[in-house]
# Entry
Amino acid sequence: MQKNVLDAGVFVEGRVATGVTTPGVAREARLPPEGLPGVEIMAPGGRWLEKARATAQKTGDLDVLSPADLEVVALALEIGGIVVTSDFAVQNVARAAGLEVEPLGKSIRKGIEWAWYCPACGRTTPRGGRKGECGVCGTEMKRRPRKGK
Ligand SMILES: [Zn+2]
# Structure
């Protein structure tokens, strides 16, 4: 049976859930280090963290994900688990990585690919990309879903 991999929102919202979660989530949600009844804490391996990070970079979500969020995606990849989350960025990256997602609350229907753009001069990044200053005019870049294909 696939295990649920729980993100911090599950605990913050006081949901009752069982499964596994990561040390980063445990810190963020102030769980006891030994976990909770029915909730085991596992650290994902480095290569899975790399894979989660690469996927987030590709979808353009890397800058809005916390280290704990990346651990959740990485752990789900490692153990073949189902990501349980209320966070849109986590849902988006998990789906892009080919994972099953159990959304809490509202869910996004399909994957979003973000593009960063400059609100001042209109420069855009081709796909994915990082936040930061516009290379042309130095204004802080913003992001929006990339249009069309
Ligand atoms: Zn600009």
